[in-house]
Amino acid sequence: MKHLLPVVGLILAVNMTQAQTESVDVKTVQETAKNYIRQGDYSNAVLVLNRGLQTNTDNLELQKDLAFAYYLNRDYAHGIEIAKKFPERPDADVQSFQILGMLYKSIEEVKECEKMYKAALKKFPNSGTLYNEYGEMLYSKKNYAEAAKLWEKGIETDPNFSGNYYNVAKYYYFTTDKVWPLIYGEIFINLESYSKRTAEIKMILLDGYKKLFTETNITKDQDTKNDFVRAFLDVMKSQSSFIGANGVTPETLSAVRTKFVLEWFAKYAKGLPFRLYEYHQQLLKAGMFDAYNQWIFGTTASLPVYENWTKTHQEEYNKFDYFQHNRVFKLPSSGQYYQTAKN
């Protein structure tokens, strides 16, 4: 028995070395393929990944990369051939379903795609990513209301994923709803502060406030049965006369929204705690709320005027800019979802 111990030790050492080598090889294959993808050379990426799978046949990461490379190369048939097996795997992750969904959508295979998303959400019921992409598929087929329900569910279950806010804010913007485009749009730009989509939603926010104050009765066509909506409109109503006399500008919005925060915390914050308004209060106390409002509305209303504002308020602008780039806006995982998806 004593003579067997060195042999066993040697076998274990060899096996560990082989496992480490295999792991390194997978990472090397992935990095080589990613370099080709960055260069737009998708055919070489496919070649490298196929070679890698010859010695790592069951490696999910390589299979996902290969299916994605086929997608980029517009070879959807081969991509689906690889990815359609993902849902059967016990180790399939959210990204596996995402890749298969992208491939199905590329060939407009709606039936299989919807079936796949339903299965994916049974496995990952709190995935904001899957709700978002399933909703986008339905929206592309003009099933707008069902898409909105999915985006709402994504917000409810995964409140820090930005994509659902982006899509549902745009959806509500093109309805008669004047409250949720403002709420969801502003949450979105705080979760995703510097992208092309941010600039798009800032435009919706500025125009959304114009729409809100255009009606003499701002509660018209709004869901006043909803406690949060009713509270929002109640506080905004008291500011409408000020807006009417001065128009909707970055300066008037900053003033109105300052008064809104003060009144909200006096009347509704205890019963309707809300992270976005807590953030507003934090900025007010730190003397950065005007700069924050300029960042949202000034860049959209008039870029030259905004740039002039940053020069004449340089200290205030620099303070907020530094803070904005170094803070993480995070919503609580539960307890602050106040919307009910519309039928």
What would you note in describing this structure?
- The protein has 343 residues and is mostly helical.
- The protein has a domain at 176-343.
- The chain starts with a helix and ends in a 17-residue tail after the last helix.
- It has helices spanning 4-38, 42-55, 60-72, 76-83, 94-106, 110-123, 128-140, 144-157, 162-173, 180-191, 196-214, 227-237, 240-246, 250-267, 275-285, 289-301, 303-312, 314-326.
- Helices cover 73% and strands 0% of the residues.
- The longest helix is centred in the first third of the chain and has 35 residues, at 4-38.
- It is elongated, with a radius of gyration of 26 Å.
- It comes from Niastella koreensis.
- This is Tetratricopeptide TPR_1 repeat-containing protein.
- It holds the Pfam family TPR_16.
- TPR repeats lie at residues 128-161.
Q: What is the strand and helix layout of this fold?
A:
Elements: H1 4-38, H2 42-55, H3 60-72, H4 76-83, H5 94-106, H6 110-123, H7 128-140, H8 144-157, H9 162-173, H10 180-191, H11 196-214, H12 227-237, H13 240-246, H14 250-267, H15 275-285, H16 289-301, H17 303-312, H18 314-326
Organism: Niastella koreensis
Signal peptide: 1-19
TPR repeats: 128-161
